[in-house]
Design brief:
The protein is α+β, with helices and mostly antiparallel strands and about 400 residues long. Helix 3 crosses helix 4, helix 5 packs across helix 6 and helix 7 packs antiparallel against helix 10. The two termini are about 35 Å apart. The strands form four sheets. The protein has a six-stranded mixed beta sheet with strand order 1-4-6-11-8-9, with no helix packed on it. A six-stranded antiparallel beta sheet has the order 13-14-18-17-16-15, with helices on both faces. The chain has ten helices and 18 strands.
């Protein structure tokens, strides 16, 4: 858990201030509460989001300054009721608290209107919001002292009916590699291969041999006030170790196997229309990228169309790529990813040109990539899009390298 994170208006839309608008039930004077509509600077400086609150673990804190507010976020995964309470246990005697609830968070911010508030409905002068009906989402609970000058420790508990604040791991598909873990392992491979100037397969071997399972799980499933853990984390570290991690290692073992293929490739020229699209892309990126297109006719054993992974492997094994690096075979990717990249480079006519040249509308896409540092302080990321036209036996490869300083 990270501590001492200030709420910033630009980041969360929250402005907090001190104002005496409501009278406390005990007649002790004006109740000091957060103001989310242009609050005073002295209170903004004292309001902190200290972390994430869960129904499994209470949080504790302490008020040590005047006009001090402290906040926590928490998640509700199913519609239901929740109770928030500053408990007698763990709280200082004579501490008089206030509590305010905002949410659910929408478009990265909390509404200026508080959902609920309380002064002393709990034990003695402590605060409690009982059985508040909440829809799924992220909420912000802010604690303060009733008169703004209280001192002492507090213990805050979240109690959710029917476990609506618990993310369940029962529906996690343990046979699939989670995207976050796949990306984490892939980044390790790319960085290791680049730093040590070894192949992607060797980089993967190094990453796998030095993998700390528990540290990896805790890193990926870490939660703080602004970061929610992926859904699969609810399955726990044992499921991660026994099922999810092996699913990812099997996936990368397949992708990073040494290039070897039974598919024979024969180089073929690209069309003038495809060349024109490459030239457009080169002009758009000027000195910050390079683009190269190639075409192949392939012969698959028994005339069985290859999978995307097999197609990319055939291109890697056949030397059909310009870039010389530790290529990572990423297998099949969505056509929308290719289309988005082409639109960005103003090459949105490339797919149609490739379809016309191969005389086929039907295709699927595989991808390979590698990263390198070709010059001091210059990073290069290369992607090879492999368009496979199974009906007519064509591979079309579009290789793009982007340079960043």
């Amino acid at each position: 858990m990270r501590y001492g994170i200030f709420i910033l208006a630009a980041a969360t839309g929250l402005l907090l201030g001190a104002c005496g608008t409501d009278e406390a039930d005990t007649g002790k004077g004006a109740l000091v509460e957060p103001d989310l509509d242009g609050g005073k600077t002295d209170v903004i400086d004292r309001v902190k989001v200290l972390g994430r609150l869960t129904s499994e673990e209470p949080v504790t804190g302490s008020f040590t300054k005047d006009l001090e507010f402290q906040a926590y976020t928490f998640d509700v995964f199913e519609a239901g009721k929740a109770t928030l309470e500053v408990t007698q246990k763990g709280s200082s005697r004579k501490l008089d608290t206030s509590m305010f609830l905002y949410g659910p968070q929408k478009n990265g911010r909390f509404s200026d209107d508080k959902l609920a508030g309380d002064d002393d409905s709990g034990w003695g002068a402590l605060s409690r919001l009982r059985d508040v009906t909440l829809e799924p989402g992220t909420y912000l609970v802010v604690l303060g002292t009733a008169t703004g000058d209280g001192r002492g420790n507090y213990r805050l508990v979240l109690d959710c009916a029917d476990n609506v604040c618990l993310r369940h791991g029962d529906d996690v598909d343990l046979s699939q590699c989670p995207l976050e873990l796949e990306e984490w392992l892939t980044e390790c491979v790319e960085e290791t291969a680049s730093d040590l100037e070894v192949s992607a397969a060797e980089g993967w071997s190094i990453c796998r041999d030095n993998l700390d399972v528990l540290d990896t799980f805790e890193s990926l499933c870490f939660e703080d006030a602004f970061t929610r853990a992926p859904a699969w984390c609810a399955a726990g570290d044992e499921a991660f170790s026994v099922s999810l991690l092996p699913a990812c290692t099997n996936l990368l073992d397949e992708r990073l196997a040494s290039p070897d293929s039974d598919i024979a490739l024969t180089a073929a020229p690209v069309s003038d229309e495809m060349d024109e699209q490459v030239e457009i892309g080169a002009e758009v990126c000027e000195d910050f990228c390079s683009i190269f297109a190639s075409a192949f006719l392939y012969n698959s054993p028994n005339d069985v169309p290859p999978t995307a992974t097999e197609a990319v492997n055939a291109v890697l094994a056949g030397g059909g790529l310009e870039g010389d690096g530790a290529w990572l075979n990423e297998g099949e990717v969505g056509k929308d990813e290719l289309a988005s990249d082409l639109v960005f480079r103003e090459m949105d006519g490339f797919v149609a040109a490739a379809q016309a040249h191969t005389r086929s509308e039907l295709f699927f896409v595989g991808r390979a990539s590698f990263s390198s540092t070709p010059f001091p302080a210059v990073d290069a990321h290369t992607q090879a899009w492999v368009m496979v036209f199974p009906e007519t036996g064509w591979f079309v490869v579009l290789e793009i390298t982007d340079f960043t300083e």
